[in-house]
Amino acid sequence: MNSPAYRSASASGVPAASRAAYSGLAAVMMFAVLLASYSINAMDRQIFPLLAADVRHEFGFGLADIGLLSTIFTLGMAVAGVPTGFLLARLSRKSATIIGIAIFSIGTILTTSAHGFADMLLFRAATGIGEAMQLTVIIGIGTSYFTRFRSTAVGAVNFAFGVGAIIGPVAGGKLLAIHHAWRFPMIVFGALGFVAILVILIAVRKGFSETLALENTQVQTQAAPTLWNRNTILLTVLSLIGGLIIYGYLGMYPTFLREHLGFTPALTGRVMGAYGLGVFASIAGGWVGDRFSARKVLFVCFLIAAALGYGLFHAATTLLEQSVLSFFWGLVVSGTIYVNLAGYHIRSVSGHLNSKASGVFVSSLYGSAAVAGYTIGWLATHAGWSAAGLTQISLTACAGALISLALQPSRMALRARRATPLSAADPA
C-alpha cells in the first residue's frame, strides 16, 4: 500500500494491500460488529450490580463483600491489560478478541453455579481477564484504523458500553420479574457472547482487524517513542483515580439506591438507564478530546465529577434527581473522562505502541477499580453513604483535577491528516 499512514501486521499474514480493499462503510460495519460484542459485555457489567441485593440475600454476604463481587472483575482486567498489549505481537487481534469473549462468557455462566463467596469471586475475576483482552483489542483496532479521530473511536467503544448499560438493567429486570431467579439473566447474557463470537468469525476480516498505524510523516508530532514518559506516567495516575470514582459508582450505586433510598429493582433499573443515556455522549466526548487540550478537558471534567458525586450520595433523594445526576455522570465521567484517558494514553506515544498504551490504560484504570466497590462499601458501613461518596468520589476527583494541570499536551501526537491514497477507505 502506498500510504505511510498504515501498515498491516505481518505476523498475522495479512498483506499490506488488503486495507485498501475495504470501503469506509465496510470498515465502519466491521467495527460496529466488534462494538456490538462489547455491548453484550456491558450488559453483564450492569446486570450483576442490579442483582447484587438478591445474591446478598441468598448467600448472606456483607455490604463490603457484595461490593467486592461487583467490581472484582476489574482485577482480572488489571492483570490481563498490559500482557494483552504485548501478546498481540504474537497473536492476531481477531483471535484475541474471540478468546476474550469466550473467557468472559464462560465466567459469566459459571458465576451462577457458585456455592459461596470464594468461587463466585474467582468466576467474577475471570470475566475481567476476558474483558481486558476484548477491550484492549477493540481500542487498538479503532485507534489504528481511524487514526484521524482516535479519541472519537474510543468514544464509539464507550458508546457501545452505553447501549449495553441501558439494555442490561431493563432486560435483566424483566427476566428477573418473569423467572424470579437471579441466575437466569446471567445465563442469557453469557450465552449471547457465543453468538457474538460466531458473528465476528463470519463478518470481521483480518485485513481490517490487523491494520496497524505508522507515523504519518506529514504530521509533526512530539509523541514519546517509549511508554516511560511524563504524560503516560501522569495519565496512569489519573486512570487509577478514574477507576476509583467510576467503579465506586458502578459497583455500589445500585445497592445504595435499593438499600439506602429504598428504590425497587425496576426504579433502580430506570436510574441506571439514565446513566446509560449519558454514556451515549461518548462519541461527542471523544470529539472534544480530539480538539481541545488534554489539560483543560480533564481538569474541568474531574471538577464536575466531584460536584456530581456529592449530589448523588449526599443531596439527591427522589427518582428524578437521581436520574438527572446519573445522566450527567454518564455524560461527563464515563462519556468524557474515561474516553479521553484512553485516547490521551494512545496519543502520548508513537503509533507502533498503540496496543501497549491501550493495555497500560486498561491495567491502571481497572487495577484501582478492582477495589473500588469494596472501599466504598467499607466506607459506607463505617461512616455512612454520604461520607463514602464525599471521600471516594468527590475528594478523589478533586485530586485528579489538580494532577491534570501537570500534563503536557504539546508532547502528544497531533491528529493524522487524511491520506489521499486511502480517501475512499477513510470513513471520516
Automatic annotation (TrEMBL):
Lineage: superkingdom: Bacteria
Predominant location category: membrane
A single GO molecular function term of this UniProt record: transmembrane transporter activity
Its membrane topology: Multi-pass membrane protein
Compartment(s) where it occurs, according to its Swiss-Prot or TrEMBL record: Cell membrane
Transmembrane segments: 20-40, 66-89, 96-115, 121-141, 153-172, 184-204, 232-252, 272-290, 297-320, 326-346, 358-379, 385-407
Pfam family, one: MFS_1
GO cellular component terms, semicolon-separated: plasma membrane
Major facilitator superfamily (MFS) profile domain segment(s): 25-412
Gene3D superfamilies according to UniProt: MFS general substrate transporter like domains (1.20.1250.20)
Keyword vocabulary terms for this entry: Cell membrane, Membrane, Transmembrane, Transmembrane helix
PANTHER family referenced in this protein's UniProt entry, alphabetically: CHLORAMPHENICOL EFFLUX PUMP RV0191, PURINE EFFLUX PUMP PBUE
Protein name listed in UniProt: Sialic acid transporter NanT
